[in-house]
């Protein structure tokens, strides 16, 4: 096959590599599972668990489990779809940064700027439940030692 038959965008030179992850001589099933730690870390759910529980109308462990399972399943489906699409587009030539595989066009540059913006804005927001939990923790310790409840807005 010529390079023009493998290129995803004519004239841009981003060519497909062979899709060989499932061939016994090229890869193994353990290679597939080596991506799971990255997926688990990318969810970043832990700091959000307290906020989700507090926002439930009638918070119970069962309801938290349902919300968690739904959210993680949705994100897993999204990540898996994007991963498979990138792999079947570029084969073994795929890079860690999927957008780095695409040609330098206006659309891809807009996507890169958009992702940078989302990362800059979302990570600080993920820490809000951590600060609220820390405030509650310090307030509980203070109320136990001084008898004053500093986390209740009415008694400040």
Automatic annotation (TrEMBL):
Q: What is its main location?
A: membrane
Assigned protein family: Belongs to the amino acid/polyamine transporter 2 family.
- Domain annotation Amino acid transporter transmembrane: ranges: 29-139
- GO MF annotations, alphabetized: L-arginine transmembrane transporter activity; L-glutamate transmembrane transporter activity; L-histidine transmembrane transporter activity; L-lysine transmembrane transporter activity; L-serine transmembrane transporter activity; L-tyrosine transmembrane transporter activity
Pfam annotation, one family:
Aa_trans
Q: Where in the cell is it found?
A: Vacuole membrane
The membrane spanning regions, by residue number, are: 67-90, 110-128
Cite the entry's keywords alphabetically.
Amino-acid transport, Membrane, Transmembrane, Transmembrane helix, Transport, Vacuole
Task: Please give the name of this protein.
Answer: Amino acid transporter transmembrane domain-containing protein
**GO cellular component term of the entry, any:** vacuolar membrane
- Membrane association type: Multi-pass membrane protein
């Amino acid at each position: 096959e010529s390079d023009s038959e493998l290129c995803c965008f004519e004239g841009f030179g981003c060519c497909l590599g062979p899709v060989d992850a499932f061939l016994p001589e090229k890869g193994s099933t353990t290679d597939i599972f080596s991506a799971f730690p990255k997926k688990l870390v990318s969810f970043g759910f832990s700091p959000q668990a307290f906020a989700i529980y507090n926002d439930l109308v009638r918070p119970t462990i069962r309801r938290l489990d349902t919300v968690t399972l739904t959210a993680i399943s949705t994100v897993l489906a999204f990540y898996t779809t994007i991963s498979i699409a990138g792999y079947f587009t570029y084969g073994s030539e795929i890079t860690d940064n999927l957008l780095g595989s695409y040609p330098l066009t206006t659309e891809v540059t807009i996507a890169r700027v958009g992702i940078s913006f989302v990362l800059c804005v979302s990570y600080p927001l993920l820490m809000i439940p951590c600060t609220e939990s820390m405030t509650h923790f310090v307030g509980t310790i203070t109320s136990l030692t001084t008898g004053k409840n500093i986390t209740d807005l009415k008694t400040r």
